Amino acid sequence: MSITYCEIFTRYMLPSIRAFIAKKLISEYGYTQWSAAKKLGVSQALINHYLSGKRGAKLFKIFEEDRNLMSIIDEITKAIALNNANAGDILCKLCINLRTRSKDFLEAVGIKQREVSYPPCTI
């Protein structure tokens, strides 16, 4: 079975990233759960699940130990909080960064690297 890296990123990595961003928007920028949800385009209930660790927590420990990754997440959070239009560009930077070091992340979600196909990034 082959799964694309893009699918892994959106299914496993992005929820953890969104959870970090939601937590930072609330704790560092004073957002409410509702306003963070609106900003991220998700429901308030999902934000509540992020905050309680019910969703998006699978990769937290690995992400927290990676200073470079957390720096990019901080950059994304700041861009979102300040209505900076380049948050999408920063997210692409994050995806590319994770793609080059995907082995640890894949193991954390139970996927073997040989099962992953890496289509060329067109962004």
How much is the average pLDDT?
Answer: 85
The order of strands across the largest sheet is 1-2
Give the CA-CA distance, first to last residue: 26 Å
| Uncertain runs | none
| Biggest beta sheet summary | 2 strands, parallel
> How many whole angstroms does the radius of gyration measure?
14 Å
Please give the count of helices. 7
* Succession of helices and strands: EHHHHHHHE
User: How many separate domains?
Assistant: 1
Estimate what percentage of residues fall within beta strands.
under 5%
Shape: globular
Proportion of residues in helical segments: 55-70%
- Give the tally of β-strands: 2
Overall SS class: mainly alpha
Overall description:
The protein has 123 residues and is mainly alpha-helical. The protein has one domain (3-112). Helices cover 67% and strands 3% of the residues. A two-stranded parallel sheet has the order 1-2. The longest helix is centred in the N-terminal third of the chain and has 25 residues, at 5-29. The protein is globular, with a radius of gyration of 14 Å. 23% of the residues are buried. The model has no long low-confidence stretch (mean pLDDT 85). This is Transcriptional regulator-like protein.
Topology:
Layout (H helix, E strand, L loop, with lengths): L2 E2 H25 L3 H8 L3 H9 L7 H5 L2 H15 L5 H14 L1 H7 L7 E2 L6
Parallel strand pairs: 1-2
Relevant terms:
Lambda_DNA-bd_dom_sf, globular, mainly alpha
Outline of the structure:
67% of the residues lie in helices and 3% in strands.
